[in-house]
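Obj.: predict assembly geometry.
Materials: sequence records (below).
Method: joint structure prediction, all chains together.
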Amino acid sequence: AQKVTQAQTEISVVEKEDVTLDCVYETRDTTYYLFWYKQPPSGELVFLIRRNSFDEQNEISGRYSWNFQKSTSSFNFTITASQVVDSAVYFCALSDPFWGQGGKLIFGQGTELSVKP
Amino acid sequence: DTAVSQTPKYLVTQMGNDKSIKCEQNLGHDTMYWYKQDSKKFLKIMFSYNNKELIINETVPNRFSPKSPDKAHLNLHINSLELGDSAVYFCASSQDQGPGDYTEAFFGQGTRLTVV
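Observations (raw structure tokens):
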């Protein structure tokens, strides 16, 4: 069965600190997608990144970076020089084998990040 | 233009009532979903439709009935509302862009349902 674990329920940092949000997944599929979403206090779900299982390149987008390691089934997310606006709940998600034809995303429990000024 | 829009954003209703949540996407996507987010923020799939065909119905009480009149719309009707139905309901859509190339899920802004 597929599963996503975000072991950190809450993280609190001070502005300008770097912070890494962990995501570990379980799947027997060889082809799958991994995603990160941000849910700010306003409640909407904001897409951050999509990565397919064949692309293990790390990605950097501004202050955000992602480290995908198939060997450890992890897809971790790092925010460099955190800002108060980064305060949100962050979700990691894994696609099921039928993603693209009506399949689902399996979400982790979410990590609530609080960045204090 | 909003890509995935749901109405209403807030819904407060009494137990036993019937209510509907509407969802529309203007992205031209073939697949639409309903997800439920509970009070602990956990997100779980309820339904998915691909080209108007029901694909996933994930252990949802049959008081919940999705309806997809066309590929751009997926509405959620809930009969005989119960206190435990209080949650945030998210509509989403995605697209198959070709062999092995699928988009992310684009989510609506959510509907906060409170049953009193």
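Conclusions so far: The longest strand of chain B covers residues 43-50.
To do: check interface contacts against the pulldown list.
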